Amino acid sequence: MVFHYVNIKNADDLYFRSSVRNIYFYILLTYMLKAFHHIGKYFLLLARVFKKPDNYKLYGRQTINEMVSLGLGSLGLISIISLFMGAVVTLQTVAAIDSPLIPLYTVGYATRQSFILELAPTIMCLILAGKIGSNISSEIGTMRITEQIDALEIMGVNSASYLIFPKIVAALFTIPMIVVYSMFLGLVGGWVVGLYSGMLTVEDYLYGIRWDFKTFDVIYALIKTLFFAFIITSIPSYHGYYTRGGALEIGKSSTKSVVYSSISILVINYILTQLLLI
Length: 278
Known about the structure:
The chain is 87% helix and 0% strand. The chain is an all-alpha fold. It has 2 domains: 1-49; 55-276, no CATH class. Helix 2 packs parallel to helix 5 and helix 7 runs antiparallel to helix 8 (247-276). The longest helix has 48 residues, at 2-49. It is globular and about 70 Å long. Residues 1-6 have low confidence and may be disordered.
């Protein structure tokens, strides 16, 4: 009887483990199918976005308006963050140098490399994904639930191209400029620390900025920025365009657009770094 009880217990345990594995497999398969479904819809939407425009002048005016909205509206936030990040990176680098054998001009070199390679292109684009992405998603989502997009379709207008294409083109022009502006302000923030803190001289800091400068570092940052700019506008546009329901769904679409844009930026950042720098 004892052996019979043990066999039943082992059988129940195996059945339970098999059921748990089946549940996990089902959940994983469901998420994978949903992911492929959204990826397919995303690329189908892009195919509509990049169709030949019907009115180039109208698209040109819309693109200029988007450049003003996306670019000028973000300069204040980027300026404050870049200045203080440059100052903090400089202070932390100076504080980390304990050995007298390490020259102080390496502080300027470290600040320059940090901003050009990562802080300006990646961190600033993550910030812009939150600011610009949520704005784009909520704007297009509101147009969807108020049936403005349906009205455009009835009039024979390619609504996807008319609403999304100018935003993408505007971002491809303005966001690289914002990133270069962020690089400059970050270095200025470090220069202010060298000027007023007394922890290092301005001459050492400026020499470190110039030391071993490679033009490809800036090119690499701008290449990343172009990919990020496309992500920042296209993914929120997708979530806004397919919003269904009411005001609550607009908020959910904005949240999803920021989350997925940020994750995509981090993944693309790793891939481009592996391809271009390694």
